Amino acid sequence: MRNSVRAPRRRRCPRHDLPRCPMPRPRRRCSWKQVDDDRGMVRMPTMEWVTSSCRLLASTAVDFERERPFAGLRIGAAIHLEPKTATLLLVLARGGADVVATGNLRTTQGATLTFLREQGVTVIGDRTRDPHTEDACLRQVLATRPHLLLDNGGGLFLRYLDAPYEGLLGGTEETTSGRAQLMPVRARIKRPVLVINDSPIKQFAENTHAVGQSVLESFLRITNRATNGRRVTVIGYGACGRGIAKNFAHAHARVAVWESDPVRRLEAMFDGYAVPGRREALASADIIVTSTGNPGILTAEDLPLLSDGVILVNAGHLPWEIDVPGLLAHPTVLSCTEPTEGLQTLTLSGGARVNILTEGHMVNLNGPRPLGNSVESMDLGFTLQARCLEAIAAGRVSADQCVVPVPPEIDAQVAQAYVALAGGERPVNTP
What we know:
Blueprint: H1 44-53, H2 55-67, E1 74-79, H3 83-94, E2 98-103, H4 110-118, E3 122-124, H5 131-143, E4 148-151, H6 155-162, E5 170-173, H7 176-182, H8 186-189, E6 193-195, H9 200-223, E7 231-235, H10 239-250, E8 254-258, H11 262-270, H12 278-283, E9 287-290, E10 310-314, H13 324-329, E11 333-336, E12 343-348, E13 353-357, H14 375-393, E14 402-405, H15 408-421
Parallel strand pairs: 1-2, 1-4, 2-3, 4-5, 5-6, 6-14, 7-8, 7-9, 9-10, 10-13
Antiparallel strand pairs: 11-12, 12-13
Helix pairs in contact: 1-3, 2-3, 2-14, 3-14, 5-6, 9-10, 9-14, 14-15
């Protein structure tokens, strides 16, 4: 009997059961092996889970690989470097972009940084812990003269104005804080800058739903404290503040809102929350969460108002809403613990204690095992980012659209694609 030689079976992507993994990995198919980096952090299972969950970005990556909208272009990015943002950056690379990235202050995750470098993305710096190092990294990104900027807080565009160069087409800004910083200088930028945070999709999917969930999850993860019956004051009642208030209320906390805008304050009251004055809102709280995007929301002058054992939490993008250096330097602070596992305690001269989470930095991307917002919400937001950059690269956005919301047609494109992928357009079975 003649020996038969069996042809070797081609290895398939086990996650998607396809000959080729559809996820955005320019150099290799997705790995299902557990790999530890030099800091002992498990890397690949997290990346695989995130990338396999970003269905909209995966679909966008297929389009980008076929159409190559960024061929010959460099994209400079300053963003939180964690698994979801890594997925976005690799989608852009699939579209032909030469991606140069750096992380935001204190939020870079070592495993993600290592992973991106393995995939051929140029990453400048490591986990930055002070503003001077962050400034140097941002300027190094700009020194590569990117054609497009993906900004998260306005740092890249503001530094571009310090040393403008030819060839910048425009870019995107992710946050409310960044938009506030760029609005006064839009006449100097003179290029299209689309603000992702002003998209209605970003507002309800990420800011209200996902931020509220992730801030509550982070509070529970860091403190291991129950919220039942606790008095929680949320400062700021924009899209993020609404979600934070709702999630703490659903976790059986007694929620009050302090908001300087009288219309939003009225909205909070109609939503069922107490709306005391600022002094009472601070003095009565067991937990205070800032969510405004503005600096100096809680300062050392507020220390006499705070109750013993109060926990201060910042949900805003920048570490300026709670003036932690000012609190630490106040003469009534007798001692403070080291910020261990995201928690620091100040003891005041009268014996009262004030607890600060993650040193006043954005709570959901700091502390032990920070996860940030849900994968699904970021899948939507980052697809908006990718499609906005695509439109700017193609010249479909004019220079006078500087620091403006996402164009409605891009919102509609992303919304329709997400609903289709999620099965929302499938007919309902009826008897």
